[in-house]
Amino acid sequence: MSQKEITVNVPGNLDPVYSNMIQIAFRDDEFTLMFLHQIPNINQAKAKAIVTISPKHAKKLLLVLDQSVKEFESKFGTIEQPTEQKANESVTMRGYS
Hints:
This is DUF3467 domain-containing protein. The chain is an alpha+beta fold. Helices cover 23% and strands 26% of the residues. The protein has a 3-stranded antiparallel sheet with strand order 1-2-3. β1 and β2 form a beta hairpin.
């Protein structure tokens, strides 16, 4: 499979987003990723971006993210797993339907 190079146009007014938390929901035809920012020691998080992708795109994202993490760790060392938050911790979302 050959890769095709594409030009990505990034609008000048597009602000970067920092996220230290993520919520993922899915149904049969899509995955929704909600990127959140939680300030340490405060029991609240603010949604910074909501991205919806197809299941095929989610699978591709999984593969490319796995490869990127492996490359990162080979260059910078092992990423330690966080201990302060459990993966199945519940988050109540307000203002999103």
